[in-house]
Amino acid sequence: MLAGLRQHGNFPLPARADMNDVLAALARAAGWTVHPDGTTFRSSNQPHLPPPPPQLGMFQVAPVETPAFINTLNSYAIGTPLDSQASALQTDDSLSPSSLDSVVADRSIKTENYGNSSSANSLNCMDNDQLLRSSAVLAGDYTKTPYIPVYASLPMGIINSHCQLVDPEGVRAELRHLKSLNVDGVVVDCWWGIVEAWIPRKYEWSGYRDLFGIIKEFKLKVQVVLSFHGCGDTGSGDVLISLPKWIMEIAKENQDIFFTDREGRRSTECLSWGIDKERVLRGRTGIEAYFDFMRSFHMEFRNLSEEGLISAIEIGLGASGELRYPSCPEIMGWKYPGIGEFQCYDRYMQKNLRKSAVSRGHLFWARGPDNAGYYNSRPHETGFFCDGGDYDSFYGRFFLNWYSGVLIDHVDQVLSLATLAFDGAEIVVKVPSIYWWYRTASHAAELTAGFYNPTNRDGYSPVLKMLKKHAVILKLVCYGPEFTVQENDEAFADLEGLTWQVMNAAWDHGLPICIESALPCLDGDMYSQILDTAKPRNDPDRHHASFFTYRQQPPFLLQRDVYFPELRTFVKCMHGEAPQNGEG
């Protein structure tokens, strides 16, 4: 890296330069003034770049203080010529802009890499000693352990709102890096709001066809995620994707197609499960609209499935593509560790609830709880979720059975048609990790998300039994050790306890599982935790994950020189090819 910088005219370095000299040189090139003591400030004539938005979900990322410098370092780390920085930061003006109420508003950046804010922030939070340090030694020997395929997700922004592949050469560069790490394949999100954007039953797959063709060049597998939800409403970054435009037009006349909270606020991220069997979508039910989309995908790419390019298809079943109600929407002001709110107040869900109450002979039960608090309440602050609260009363048990039953029925309906549409393909379903308030009696956050899992009841077994019926693969999310040790005790959180409850229940039902990382892997501790979860050391039945997925863009795509050895070791360990410390 130092030799490359010296060869570039804009980076004069001392003969015995260390990392501080490198950082200072790159900072000056990005327009920052560097004082002798190492501090920096931006000259007033330089354009101001806003800090990147925080990461989605409850985990906030530290703001970036020097965004231009980080962009310069990121691009140099993968070999992008520094002269191309200006063009790399320009947007493609040839694409028509889209407003916030359109299907997609995106930034079509034509650059060799698609860096996200979390990766840049992570680099910014590391000190120079960490950057210079060689890959950490990972403890343990995974030689001859089961082979677990490794997949890396591709960024959302590579397909724009017109279903066009934004930067084919940038995709090739990214796939080239992935191939050098010996990963097995990539994950691609196929968005309902892009493909069936404007007219019902009119599907545009051209951008995905081009993308799959490039992936095929590198002999990588593809896992496809059929995303029936929107994304980006809380300022998640460069891409904003809503439900199809024609759905939003219907909603102007009938907002009850969306999940609704007790105050009447609508969640436009996904459709209410109350319309699964209601013909309110231009003559179609919700289930029929999902099936038509799945069938269109299968007809368009059947040959790729037959060739083995497409190895699995993940079906989005709720908020964020996970099997859950949108009970904790940040757009409504929810913040971790709030318990969330029940989402059952659209007229179709209310009709379903009334029918259920009448069948039990208790019409007065046809209502949602009136003492369940608000999005940011704590369990002990409510009459419903507190110890000895109404959640365990006759009415509470009826309501929670009904609420979770609607979720299970939605799973059954969608997966029945998915099995029909894809005819033997591997199907994946993601179950959320709602781990805060897990060490309380009511498990309030799980209840509002649709999992009836208080301490006196196993709420995951009925769901897993339904998934087993349809022979799908269960996907679990792994957050990493830093979010285990930093949890606030006041939230009574237990990620590890929840993870093992779900994993053991899945294995008891004979259900295969896979692991997904929610955050970039930055050190050996996180790699070790993922390996221990994917390949439990002391399991007498030798259970292991079916595959592992980086759901967020891995940092090695941006800082290859820093992370390459450690990550390559991790991939080898997943493949059972080498000891964990074999690449140190």
TrEMBL record:
Signal peptide: none annotated. The keyword Acetylation does not apply. Keywords: Carbohydrate metabolism, Glycosidase, Hydrolase, Polysaccharide degradation. It catalyses: Hydrolysis of (1->4)-alpha-D-glucosidic linkages in polysaccharides so as to remove successive maltose units from the non-reducing ends of the chains. Its EC number is 3.2.1.2. It holds the Pfam family Glyco_hydro_14. One of its GO terms (molecular function) is beta-amylase activity. The active site is at 322 (proton donor), 516 (proton acceptor). One of its GO terms (biological process) is polysaccharide catabolic process. Residues 1-125 form the BES1/BZR1 plant transcription factor N-terminal domain. PANTHER family: BETA-AMYLASE 1, CHLOROPLASTIC, BETA-AMYLASE 8. Belongs to the glycosyl hydrolase 14 family. This is Beta-amylase.
